[in-house]
UniProtKB/TrEMBL annotation:
Family the UniProt entry places it in: Belongs to the LemA family.
Protein name according to UniProt: LemA protein
Record key words, sorted: Membrane, Transmembrane, Transmembrane helix
Superkingdom of this protein's organism: Bacteria
Classification via Gene3D superfamilies: LemA-like domain
Stored InterPro entries: LemA-like_dom_sf (IPR023353), MamQ_LemA (IPR007156)
Entry's localization field: Membrane
GO cellular component: membrane
One Pfam family per UniProt: LemA
Principal location: membrane
Protein's membrane topology: Single-pass membrane protein
Amino acid sequence: MTSTFFARWTGTLVLAIFASLLSGCGYNDFQSKDEATKAAWGEVVNQYQRRADLIPNLVNTVKGYASHERETLEAVTRARAAATSFQITPEVLNNPEAFQKFQQVQGELSGALSRLMVVSEKYPDLKADTSFRDLQSQLEGTENRITVARQRYIAAVQDYNVTVRKFPTNLTAMVFGYETKPSFTVENEKAISTAPTVNFGK
């Protein structure tokens, strides 16, 4: 009986010490910060999907007034197809190559949309169309939400990556295999801040 009690007490003490060590070395911080990056990333993906959902109606509306702008319209459709077919998995957050590919397809879609908006400027009847103006407003709002979501993701990743690199939590990172996560590049941020232009001067 005494030996059983001692064994249980010893086991409880070891677990308490182990939990204390994990907390002190930043293990719990890694869990919470990893979840924060996933949540921030989820919002980025949601906003890009919202943009993608607007594009078919936008293309069809423009086509009604500028059907001969086929090359530009097809470019937007192809870019949307590439962006929506890219498989978004949790591994993207730990794979710099996959993350770069995600940036690339979304950047190409932004560029195609920007060119479509430039073409649309040539059609006064299109700019006056109620459906087009509504889509323009929705796209404008979505682009703003994309920018905010990306900024929040960048901040979450920066916080996580600092924990991976700094002492003593870098030791915990090495033991448990935590590595820095990729983020949006400065060049990509410059591009997203200016494209697409959707303000037609109401």
